Amino acid sequence: MSASAVFVLDLKGKVLICRNYKGDVDMSEIDHFFTLLMQQEEEGLLCPVMSHGNVHFLWIKHSNLYLVATTNKNSNASLVYSFLYKLVEVFTEYFKELEEESIQDNFVVVYELLDELMDFGFPQTTDSKILQEYITQQGNKLEVAKTKVPTTVTNAVSWRSEGIRYKKNEVFIDVIESINVLVNANGSVMSSDIVGSIKLKTMLSGMPELRLGLNDRMLFALTGRDKGKTVTMEDVKFHQCVRLSRFESDRTISFIPPDGESELMSYRINTHVKPLIWIESVIEKFSHSRVEIMVKAKGQFKKQSVANNVEIRVPVPSDADSPKFKTSTGHAKYVPEKNLVVWSIKSFPGGKELLMRAHFCLPSVENHETEGRPPITVKFEIPYFTVSGIQVRYMKIIEKSGYQALPWVRYITQSGDYQLRTNT
Amino acid sequence: MTDSKYFTTTKKGEIFELKAELNSDKKEKKKEAVKKVIASMTVGKDVSALFPDVVNCMQTDNLELKKLVYLYLMNYAKSQPDMAIMAVNTFVKDCEDLNPLIRALAVRTMGCIRVDKITEYLCEPLRKCLKDEDPYVRKTAAVCVAKLHDINAQLVEDQGFLDTLKDLISDSNPMVVANAVAALSEIAESHPNSNLLDLNPQTINKLLTALNECTEWGQIFILDCLASYLPRDDRESQSICERVTPRLSHANSAVVLSAVKVLMKFMEMLPKDLDYYGTLLKKLAPPLVTLLSAEPELQYVALRNINLIVQKRPEILKHEMKVFFVKYNDPIYVKLEKLDIMIRLASQANIAQVLAELKEYATEVDVDFVRKAVRAIGRCAIKVEQSAERCVSTLLDLIQTKVNYVVQEAIVVIKDIFRKYPNKYESVIATLCENLDSLDEPEARAAMIWIVGEYAERIDNADELLESFLEGFHDESTQVQLQLLTAIVKLFLKKPTETQELVQQVLSLATQDSDNPDLRDRGYIYWRLLSTDPVAAKEVVLAEKPLISEETDLIEPTLLEELICHIGTLASVYHKPPSAFVEGSRGVQHKRLPPRAGSGESTESPDVGQSGPSEAPPAVIPSQGDLLGDLLNLDLAPPTATVPSVQPSMQMGAMDLLGGGLDSLMGDESDTLGGDIGGSPSMGAGLGAAPAAMPASLGGAPAVGGGLGDLFDLGGGVGMPTGSYVAPKTVWLLAMKAKGLEISGTFARRGGIIQMDLSLTNKAMSVMTDFAIQFNRNSFGLAPAGPLQVLTPLSPNQTIDVSLPLSTSGPVMKMEPLNNLQVAVKNNIDVFYFSCQYPLSLLFVEDGKMDRQVFLATWKDIPNDNEAQFQIKDIHLNSDVASNKLQGSNIFTIAKRTVEGQDMLYQSVKLTNGIWVLAEMRIQTGNPNYTLSIKCRAPEVCPFVYQCYELVLKN
Known about the structure:
The structure holds 2 protein chains of 2 kinds. Helices cover 17% and strands 42% of the residues of chain A. Chain A is built from 7 helices and 23 strands. Chain A has helices at 31-43, 77-95, 100-105, 107-117, 128-134, 217-223, 244-250, and strands at 5-10, 15-20, 49-52, 55-62, 65-71, 118-119, 122-123, 170-183, 189-203, 209-214, 235-238, 253-255, 260-269, 277-286, 290-299, 306-315, 321-327, 331-335, 340-349, 353-361, 376-383, 392-398, 406-420. Chain A has a 9-stranded mixed beta sheet, with no helix packed on it. Chain A has a 5-stranded antiparallel beta sheet with strand order 2-1-5-4-3. In chain A, strand 1 (5-10) and strand 2 (15-20) form a beta hairpin. The longest helix of chain A is centred in the N-terminal third of the chain and has 19 residues, at 77-95. By secondary structure, chain B is α+β, with helices and mostly antiparallel strands. In chain B, 50% of the residues lie in helices and 10% in strands. Chain B has 40 helices and 13 strands. In chain B, the strands form 3 sheets. Chain B has a 5-stranded antiparallel beta sheet. In chain B, strands 9-13-12-11-10 form a 5-stranded antiparallel beta sheet, with helices on both faces. In chain B, strands 4-7-8 form a 3-stranded antiparallel beta sheet, with no helix packed on it. The longest helix of chain B has 19 residues, at 648-666. Chain B is globular and about 105 Å long. Chain B starts with 13 loop residues before the first helix and ends with a helix. The relative contact order of chain B is 0.04. The model of chain B is unreliable at 599-722 (pLDDT under 50). The interface between A and B is large, with 97 and 112 residues.
């Protein structure tokens, strides 16, 4: 059904740790993995699934590690990849960083986790908060009090333990919208969308029932209300705590939240977004002598708003040298290892137009390697504002003890995949 | 302090030291020692020698230590099965521990110890754990049943664990339900025919309830299991869909894909005019698009599946073109897949945008991606007629970049555009010709040569261009050689006056200096064609070309249906059925989509337009010499006239040449036919028929092979020895269902050897290689007695005839109908499946003549219930001729009796598996209807024996 065995390999293909779940694939098959990988890399045709004989390798890479699952069946590939990414998530929460060293430093816990996360190829409990209740790094001394499996493991509510206590009951809600834009060299917007995410930091006692109200157009249409601005969400994805069938029937977002930080939901809005920071660039390349770059950035958002930590990354040829910059605001820096000029602007008010000029020399000997034409990318953050106009209308919190709890809401718009293609 | 310290002890005598430490009295030291052992195990050292010492540490109240020891056991128990028994007691004890964590740990680990001896001790603890009060233990025990089944299936069945597992589907805890479903599905997979899951509306309802409550993984198990259910009607189908759709909002991509699988499958049952059907279609698009924001590997899986979904239901994503635009930082595998889907979604509405994007991609640096982008532009041109002009000009722009691989790729696609829109864009030929020298890839060279040949009359220096290729003829790849041969023949037919020398040169290069049979065959055919009937040659070589299809790489519909049933799995990623890459799954039934309710829409639409060999009467060679006659004499004297003149002697020359050629061409074939045909007049007549018999589908590469196949058939008809009747070949596998591979065939029994005669025709645009064949188990154990002998690659439009000897020693399984044979043929492209039926006479052995006495006894012995009567109508043969005819097919007449003007023939037949069939045939003089009574201990064969009688007597 899914994985026969899971391996963690270092960058040279050496197995750091592994777990054989089903025993139907020879564990030595993993030796072929790295050879295949190298072969594919050489041909430039890397693929996340590889096979050798009737053994299939499904793999992902994380920092300096390969996580590989083997199988000889028609496994559910999406499940395997989801699981591998879940492994990364769990290990990261346990060890802060998941890398070669942390695997070695914690191999006992890694084995324990591998044992608990999957059984006979079937993923089991993978919620790290719950796992941490019974798999700890301090050697689990068996005490009389601890003779019970956290009921959470098998509960219908498998993401929150009972008996959580806070002095002050609060929920922090972050509404973060990322703007994805792809602009063609001639300035036309090829595609744009908004990917929103609502993140919670829950500090609530007991088993609270929460209900989140958004200005969701579908909800308003259902309830027959028609006031103010509403938002059409193209696709919504929820944390498993949200009752999906309830949402499906009446668009109510009701849930018992996990404790601490979590992503409650994400949504996608497919409307045409005006690029918040508009870039016009002229990159002139004079072979054998120089490159001249002129970048004009314009804040196409309200005057009252300010974009923070703006970074405009402009590609330059790999053989350029002797950079010279001139900026109207902020400062520009050459990052040779990435072949980029990074123009940073601490705060960029709406409606303003800023300018940067750069000058590079080119060697007289032409570079033979053809280079790609990477796009200009932009990073920014605009607080107190969402492009879509989505709003949290209410967050109802009901717990049987009847405490009063306060929700805090914060809105941020930021750049997502924000690319502008260039001419040269 | 981290665990890494445990890895650092590499002293000599380590094992000895560890042994001492393991046996220490101090708990802490013991634990440290076990950790060191595990550390050594992790780095791959063999620490199996410590087995008894480690097992001694098993009895501990320290959970961490216990887990480590268990881990050690899992790793080494298999290599030390006897010692593993030592651990059993502790396991059994642990399964009764007060702590559910320990009970679960014990039962989980025990299942992982794949030692047969242990399994019997496992049963009792497992039984208890399956009924444990703690759901954590029950869910672990559920999985353990699957583990045990994997080691000893019989034991699991005998112990009734399967029933307990089924009961767990009704468990109150959703996690337990999910694991029970997962375990049952896993077990069912290895028993495809067991009705283990036994899904019915009640269990489905339980599953759907659990679906809302279990973990993301549990949801996947349940959804995957639901996907294998076949709802009773469209209403049940709809209600399941309604309860599954909320899963589309799950954050886990795998849950979403499994839900998509269920919906895509059950949707098939909904009437298309149903409102809900439309709603469902609309609901599917957004989650599919969102999958593209997942991690790249998941995006890849999603894209491969979207590729299938777009082929099955294009309407779902037709407005979502933009999301498939390639991002600069996408990994290459994502880029290539996106591109594929972009082409599939391209339509008149979005073509402008698509083209702009493709042009952008074509200037990137990644070679594979750029090539595919250029190819995509060509495909757009073919798909969306309105865009063709823009596509061509875009391609010309790209050719101007002079980037070598871009130019080559562009030329390849321009060839296809010419095919699709003849006489429209030929003005660009001049530009193409400028790039002739830079072409170094066979495909591009072949394309360019095709263009030159096809438009020879418009290219002034076509002969020079083609001649330039001729110099290095033998260094070219087959593809180019074949194309060059055809192009020059075309040129010759168009401009005969200036190109005689050229055509003669190429013909001799192809026929005399080449070792490649394909090339030689084609060369001879052209030569022959030109020498006998230039008019016919013109008709054949310059025939109108069939249209090329708009969509390429479409997955054959039955395979597509099967893959839709496997959404999210490896099969959907590979675009191959699981049987193609999973061992031991060949007998497994292929998954199919459920039939649509209400409407009589059948999933299979048999293509009636069979393209069998045309039965045109062979044209007699006109006794005239011609141009080619001259050509043949060129060595001696240069041609003086281009006007054909009557020169009978010349024709003889041609005959000789062909006679010699044929000997080598016929090869084994001529042996089996037993006729000495080469050069004989009758064969000459056969050859004369070639032009007429050649299919009209002569594209850039004429189906010369096909023509030859027909020739041999004709020849076979002439020199047929007496013997069993062989039915003409029928098409078994349609090209459209097999990515261009067409298979027709028949069965024959020749001298006691069963043969399957196949004609493989390549109707695709690329060469096929690596053929192999396999049969499914069948009623009489027919199996290939050797590999499928297709030694040369099968070029486009070529046909190869092969005879595959069969044995009857293969595995047996009763088929429905009895004489059904399921065949899988593999080539470099894919695996294809078809089924065909063989005449039972194939299995009638030569020593099937029964002794008279035995016959009488047997006839009486077989109960009358087993007797079947049949009428054979319209036979105008007397009994002797009939019995002779039947004898040819190993139906032996043992006795003949004449009673009241009725001839009674008593006959016997013996099948390869030793079954005897007795028959009585009554022939009344003057009555063309025979009465046949057949008796056999296996009465189900009777109708098939009757069929053979009919076939033999009527042919």
